[in-house]
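Troubleshooting: if your tokenizer reports a length mismatch, compare your output against this known-good record of 146 residues.
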Amino acid sequence: MDNNLKRSIILDHYQSPRNKGLIEDETYIKINMNSESCIDEINLMIKLDDKKIKDIRFDGEACAICTSATSIMIETLVGKTIEEARYIINNYYNMIDEHEYNSEVLEQAVVYDDICRQPNRKKCALLPWWGVSKILEGDNKNAERS
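Known-good structure output:
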């Protein structure tokens, strides 16, 4: 993907993030994710129904990479089954860690395919994905019903 197109996609998702804003709904699972190395702190709300991701919402304070990564992740995962989401998440992790991955399943998330060149930004691009992964894997020590 062309670098100008990558920048354009990241900027669009940073300036107009999708599904930003939390809601009061006890059917969502909520998790707080924060980075120890920068300002990134986001709250994610995920609605799972019939083994599918029905909705993801978020809010918080985060840099351009983290905000855009969250927005892109939401567009990529909403509507997917839990198994499809796990496959996509694993491919995203592989891409970030410079391992073999299936770029087709990542959709717009491939804009971070060269984030490895900026090691200090990797956590920013991974933070929301870690949160969703924790919920899908049942790591509920940091998750709660909202």
